[in-house]
Write a structure and sequence with these properties.
Layout: H1 2-14, H2 20-39, H3 50-62, H4 78-97, H5 124-131, H6 139-154, H7 158-162, H8 166-169, E1 181-185, E2 191-195, H9 198-216, H10 238-251, H11 260-273, H12 278-285, H13 290-311
Antiparallel strand pairs: 1-2
Helix pairs in contact: 1-2, 2-4, 3-4, 6-9, 6-11, 11-13, 12-13
Length: 316
């Protein structure tokens, strides 16, 4: 089965163009799955039953203490368990398509569903405190200022921002009225154009003129086309962006956890609070379905109720 898993992951990478981040998650989930089957004495895929897969899902949710040579496992959240079951179902479907087995035993096992979590956003005042942190007199500060402005100003995913090249943004500098947008490549290699405001365009110009050339000189073999660079002059990584944001959130004394996705959530929430149509927000965020975007309307309704309860004299 390990050989079949490798073939499946190669299939996702080569034929379906799945991102490295998704491949990494599937590999981790399927490694857990193979270990679970091995502990149950299952070595061949045609020995797997729907019961084995259901037991795997239950084991992920329940966790276990260390037992002899078996390491302890912490219980996984419903969302993480559901993702693992989806990976297993997709793997077994691939096995059927490849003729390794005749029956898809995973088809009957549904991923667990939990309560729908509202995305966490921070207030506009908290966003401003975060944006005020970078020291724009330094190359790193100029880079972080651009990173934060793009995340909050466009609602793009962190992967979409760090994948940008200089050529992707140069036309923005000749666009004082903001008529042109920024081309980003999202999930499934789908391209979309997102608007870019004056603050992000100004931060981009400052970075390209006063920040990027300084860091680019530190690259041993050239900085390449990347827009955002780390301290060594190489393309900034997701982890590097996360670290920069965490440091800024701490400096801004924000009392909530902040991640790059928090700024994406905040972008959508503040757009809807400001009266934007949910279909417009869907297009900017790159959601395939408006249902995904509509969860943000629940946040704004919750916000309206909170304002009503605290502001109206007859609310309570």
């Amino acid at each position: 089965m390990a050989r079949l898993v490798r073939g499946y992951l190669d299939h996702l990478t080569v034929e379906r163009g799945v991102s490295e981040h998704t491949i990494s998650g599937y590999r981790r989930d399927l490694d857990r799955y193979l270990q679970h089957l091995a502990e149950a004495g299952v070595e061949e895929i045609d020995q797997v039953t729907a019961g084995h897969i259901a037991d795997f899902a239950a084991a992920l949710r329940e966790g276990r203490p260390a037992r002899g040579a078996l390491p302890a496992r912490v219980p996984l959240a419903v969302s993480s368990t559901a993702r693992a079951v989806v990976a297993v179902r997709s793997f077994h479907r691939f096995a059927v398509e490849e003729g390794e087995v005749a029956e898809d035993v995973a088809a009957a096992v549904q991923p667990p569903s939990g309560s729908r979590r509202l995305p966490k956003a921070i207030s506009q005042a908290e966003v401003q405190r975060l944006l005020d942190v970078p020291d724009r007199s330094t190359p790193i500060g100029l880079r972080d200022a651009l990173l934060f402005e793009l995340l909050y100003g466009t609602g793009a995913r962190i992967s979409e921002i760090i994948d940008l090249d200089v050529d992707d943004v140069t036309r923005l500098l000749d666009d004082p009225e903001g008529e042109l947008g920024l081309r980003v490549v999202g999930k499934g290699d789908k391209e979309r154009i997102v608007p870019v405001g004056s603050y992000a365009r100004r931060a981009c110009a400052d970075w390209l003129v006063r920040g990027r050339p300084v860091l680019a000189e530190k690259a041993r073999s050239g900085a390449g086309p990347a827009l955002l660079l780390n301290a060594r002059g190489q393309r900034m990584s997701r982890q590097g962006a996360w670290n920069s944001l965490q440091s800024a959130a701490e400096a801004a004394e924000l009392e909530v956890h902040v991640s790059p996705h928090t700024l994406r959530h905040s972008f959508a929430t503040h757009m809807l609070d400001g009266g934007a149509d949910v279909r417009v927000v869907q297009e900017i965020l790159g959601h395939a379905s408006v249902t995904t975007t509509q969860i943000y309307t629940l946040v704004t309704v919750d916000h309206l109720r909170e304002v009503y309860l605290t502001s109206h004299p007859r609310a309570r």
